[in-house]
Design goal:
630 residues, mainly alpha, Transcription Regulator spoIIAA, six-stranded mixed β-sheet, two-stranded antiparallel sheet, elongated
């Protein structure tokens, strides 16, 4: 091996050498020694040079392409085989899910497989979460079907619908990339947990409802949740018995295996059980019995039919499909998809003890959708079940995404003709099984009722609004409820009148929560647990004056200001008025635990009051003052 290569590998190369060594020289050195070992070293040299401050790409490329940092450290002997195993496992899971979710999105089934190709590859280059598996997802498929389907009916014009979905996918990518550049990922914080839980739970019911037509073999028109169930029961007499039997058999196998993993000791102690691609086995089983029994012609069982072989060439939809009506679907899909993805990424990053970069995740998922939209995919985001599978296997790097994408590509190129006899009811069963964890969230409102009535209102409001009015409208109502609850909390924060513990002269607690506390004679201690501003100034005044009115023979008010972190002009005016009102009644106002911002505001407004470091010092002053007066 040439000396220059040895210097690079051992880290002895000087900064000047990095500047002088050009791409041409790298090519020359490759020609000097074409052994496999030198080729691997050459790749590492190029990546190391990118990671070097004065290398080819510089720090900007390091920031936007994290693969440059971790790929040079990749240990082939230790990690490559495990990445291959993980990629194959994820790939065989993607096959039935991709076909199912493609139909759920209102597209031909093969578009679900197209969505398994480009997005995970782009995310491998740009993402920061090893376990995050990007691809088709049930809730996003529902959003695409319901929101884009409201603009273009897929039953009337599938070509136009398909191109509109592809345009929407690219718009999602552009929007998320722009949000990343503007550091606007914080917007998903406004999608509170009750809103997201109510949305996903109602979404699970909408998805299940949408699959009942294929599962039962009946015709169901596009409508809202309640109208769909009316049509299902109305047409139940014309259901296809063979279709129902196949669907129930597949669903029974899937659920039985799920409970076996969850409940049995064998399933809990043997991790490989959870990695079995049971959905693929069910799909193959359903194809086999449909083909052997000739169920399509004998019993009119609906099958998947012909799937075009190969991978279509990249393309950009024509300008007529890029309409302003797509702005709302783009915004909703972007926010919901990113919120779910970043929550999944944080979960697995915490489990594996490493940090992710939320803004980089926003950029990575945006780019994944931009390029996948050019490659005939609909919006792709993280799947919790597939990400959990990656975590269970223990994938050492994101290279498994390349393997899974290659496997799906192989099926599209060579094996699509074998999918002809796949019953659509089997795909519906796979979707229903994937919704199992979301159905478990139906117990969430019972928990919220005990812990937070406000969150209960937000959850139930979002849930029923999504069911009755659709996903977009329901999400808007959930956001409005969440913001209304937040404003109510800000306008009416917690406050308390404090009392002293008998025998512990320096300890003061909320008299409503602690029955043993006693009032300090002649002194009322009031604590307001919020900043003071125009929105809560009336609550502050009313609650304080109410506490004063319930006591007699008062000479001092001690205001515990520990939680008052800021105060505005309107609140300062109220403090001046309260000070004057109580002064007329002979009650002196004393501040305790007063923060610097409040002291500065009092000084600026020329409000002269006593201020002490702690409540106990203020109370001692008040008691001493009373004794002195006597």
């Amino acid at each position: 091996m040439p000396q220059m290569e040895l210097e690079i590998e051992t880290g002895k190369m000087e900064d000047e050498d990095f500047e002088l060594m050009t791409e041409y020289e790298v090519a020359i050195r490759y020609e000097e020694d074409t052994s496999g070992e030198s080729f691997v070293s050459l790749v590492r040299q190029c990546l190391v040079s990118c990671d070097h401050p004065q290398g080819y790409c510089g720090s900007a490329l390091q920031q936007w392409m994290p693969i440059i940092k971790w790929l040079p450290k990749y240990e082939i002997k230790k990690s490559f085989l495990l990445d291959i195993i993980c990629g194959i496992t994820v790939g065989v899971v993607l096959l039935p899910q991709g076909l199912s979710y493609g139909i759920l999105a209102g597209l031909p089934a093969e578009y679900g497989l197209y969505s398994c190709l480009t997005a995970p590859v782009v995310y491998t280059l740009l993402g920061t979460c090893t376990q995050l598996q990007i691809g088709p997802f049930a809730l996003i498929s529902l959003l695409v079907n319901s929101m884009v389907g409201a603009i273009v009916d897929p039953d009337e014009d599938m070509e136009r619908y398909t191109n509109t979905v592809l345009a929407c996918t690219m718009m999602v990518g552009v929007l998320m990339a722009c949000m990343s550049f503007c550091h606007m990922g914080f917007l998903v914080n406004y999608l509170s947990v009750p809103v997201m839980s109510g949305l996903t739970t109602a979404g699970a019911l909408l998805i299940a409802t949408s699959q009942m037509g294929n599962f039962l073999g009946v015709s169901v028109a596009r409508s809202n949740f309640f109208k769909n169930w009316y049509d299902i029961f109305k047409n139940l007499g014309s259901a296809n018995v063979a279709t129902i039997l196949i669907g129930c058999l597949c669903l029974g196998i899937l659920l039985s295996f799920r409970f076996f993993k969850m409940r049995s000791e064998f399933g809990k102690t043997h991790k490989w059980v959870s990695t079995l691609p049971i959905a693929l086995f069910v799909m193959l089983f359903a194809m086999l019995i449909t083909w052997m029994g000739n169920l399509e012609s004998k019993y009119n069982v609906q099958v998947l039919g012909d799937i075009p072989p190969g991978i279509p060439a990249p393309r950009i939809p024509e300008s007529k499909y890029w309409t302003s009506q797509l702005l709302m679907p783009t915004l909703v899909i972007s926010l919901v998809g990113y919120a779910l993805s970043i929550a999944t990424a944080k979960t697995f990053a915490d489990k594996n003890k490493y940090e992710i970069l939320p803004n980089q995740e926003l950029f990575a998922i945006g780019m994944a959708n931009l390029f996948s939209g050019m490659c005939n995919s609909y919006p792709s985001f993280s799947s919790l079940s597939r990400s959990a599978l990656v975590h269970e296997i223990g994938a050492p790097s994101m290279l498994y995404n390349l393997v899974s994408a290659a496997l799906v590509a192989l099926v599209l190129l060579c094996l699509t003709k074998f999918l002809y006899y796949l019953p659509v009811s089997a795909l519906s069963a796979i979707i229903l099984d994937a919704l199992f964890s979301l159905f478990l969230q139906m117990s969430e409102p019972l928990h919220l009722w005990k812990t937070s009535k406000r969150d209960f209102i937000v959850w139930t409001g979002t849930f029923f609004a999504v069911l009755g009015l659709g996903v977009a409208t329901g999400l808007g109502i959930g956001l409005a409820l969440s913001i209304a609850v937040l404003l109510q909390m800000v306008s009416y924060p917690h406050h308390a009148v404090l009392g002293r513990f008998p025998g512990i002269s320096w300890l003061y607690k909320d008299s409503k929560r602690y029955r043993d506390v006693v009032d300090v004679p002649g002194v009322i201690i009031f604590r307001f647990d919020s900043s003071l501003h125009f929105a809560n100034r009336d609550c502050f005044k009313e609650s304080l004056m109410e506490g004063v009115s319930k006591r007699t023979s008062l000479h001092t008010l001690v205001l515990d200001a520990a939680a008052i972190t800021s105060v505005d002009k309107s609140a300062m005016d109220y403090l001046r008025k309260i000070n004057k009102i109580l002064g007329v009644k002979g009650i002196e106002v004393i501040f305790a635990n007063c923060r610097g911002c409040l002291r500065d505001a009092l000084r600026t407004e020329n409000i002269s009051v006593q201020a002490y470091l702690c409540v106990h010092d203020a109370v001692k002053y008040a008691e001493h003052k009373k004794l002195h007066v006597k």
